[in-house]
# Entry
Amino acid sequence: MNVLPWLFALALTVAPGPGAAGSPAADTLCAPQFQVLHPEQCPPLGPGGYAAQLAASKAPAVIPDVPAERLPKLTPVVAYKYARVTTANAPLFSSPEDGLADKVSGTLGKGLIYINIVATAQAGDQTYYQIRRGEYIRAADVSVVNPTDFRGVTFSENPPYPVGWVVLNVRPSPMPGMASPKEGPTLPRRSLVQVFATQQVGDWNWYLIGPQQWVEQRAIARVDVNPPPEGVSGKWIQVNLYEQTLAAYEDQRLVYATLVSSGLDKWPTRPGLFHIYVRLLTDGMAGSYTPDRSDYYYLERVPWVMYFDKARALHGEYWHDGLGFKRSHGCVNMAPLDARWLFDWAPKGTPVWVYDPSGQTPVDEDEGGAP
# Structure
């Protein structure tokens, strides 16, 4: 890979490179031109060190295939019908006839409220949905939702390079730290990529995902293959809170990986080594943690639930499409197809290792634990 002229111009601000008589002193920075050609004679510092690292950051001549296969898409994604309640304090009725007579039996309140539609009924000119707990709600007060059909990948063997998903539509840059071109192909969100090299520019790493294709790390949710935690063998699950990824292993072999959404900073998913202690095909979830109840949620029939840390669970979600970013009250949200795969694969007692390589998540946080 050629080094841009601006890198060489930086040599004007550092000590001159070695002359013909010999190599530079140990405490002298090399000019970028010299360091690219003779990195062994120069300290790995300054513009010359950066230039040498960049010159060494190359994609392989032949891009290897990722030994992975995407889960097949199922239709429907979940065998339940869901809807969001769009009217605050929407009334509930014991029957469609009570609805026609405006005889209210209660309300689900206001907030993030999703129902499971069990049946549809008609009364007069009104359509009603029967919800999971048996009451009825006007169809005009809800909006039917379609769960995301995103799904992760299974691996036949450990990949030769780290892999990851693009979480923001992005045009790769020809150099790390350089603005993306205004024209050219865009990598769509949720594209699976390989990471061939890493170069830090300022506060952020840049990943080489193809020949002269660099993407800043905030646009990639990366999966690194790690050894099992001490004392863990067989099946185990890894949740990376910084990358917002989940990986499933059998001993040291990666068998599955996907995107997740863990707890928001107010209600973090707690790092540590845990074990799945309860498995439920579905579960209802509701609650609030703020005095004004502005964060109130009510979610019917959450699919494929695996509790691992008190009220925190791995589970499917149908109420958002923001996988790859923090979204929950402490649980680990997964696409329904991912949650179904993991539920079928992971028995009770499976270790769950939750970690944050950035060290930003408090390890002693003991509140939260909700969708």
